Amino acid sequence: MGIKSTHVWPRGATPSDMVQLELWLAGHGWEVDPTVYMAGAGGAAVQVRRTGAAWDDGEAGLLILPAETVVWDGTRMQIAPRPAISVRCPAS
């Protein structure tokens, strides 16, 4: 069984969640960018890049926000589209 093609970065990620993300990324040739750290109300955002890449290599990498799902398509990482949310107007 190979490495899954998706990974969910949870809100309020713990150090254990970071270890899981790092292992998943390593299986696809990616890593957490150690030069970028962002924290917010929902938890940490994580910048990832191809293993060994630097900010000036011409590849921007990918910023993963809390509660986003990352998809590996065999070539690159991307954020999975969020499901459409049906919005209902209150009865007037």
Give a concise summary.
The protein is an alpha+beta fold. The chain has one helix spanning 15-26, and strands at residues 6-9, 30-32, 38-40, 43-50, 62-64, 68-72, 77-79. The mean pLDDT is 85.
Descriptors:
alpha+beta, three-stranded antiparallel sheet, 92 residues, 32% strand
User: Element order, helices and strands?
Assistant: EHEEEEEE
Helix/strand-derived category reads: alpha+beta
Uncertain spans, ≥5 residues at pLDDT below 50? none
| Quaternary structure | single chain
Backbone shape? globular
Count all strands and give the number.
7
Distance between the termini: 54 Å
Strand content bin: 25-35%
Mean pLDDT rating: 85
How many individual helices? 1
Structural summary, described in words:
This protein is α+β, with helices and mostly antiparallel strands and 92 residues long. Helices cover 13% and strands 32% of the residues. The strands form two sheets. Strands 2, 3, 4 and 5 form a four-stranded antiparallel sheet that branches. The protein has a three-stranded antiparallel sheet with strand order 1-6-7, covered by helices on one side. A hairpin with a 2-residue loop joins β3 (38-40) and β4. The mean pLDDT is 85.
Write the topology of this structure:
Elements: E1 6-9, H1 15-26, E2 30-32, E3 38-40, E4 43-50, E5 62-64, E6 68-72, E7 77-79
Antiparallel strand pairs: 1-6, 2-4, 3-4, 4-5, 6-7
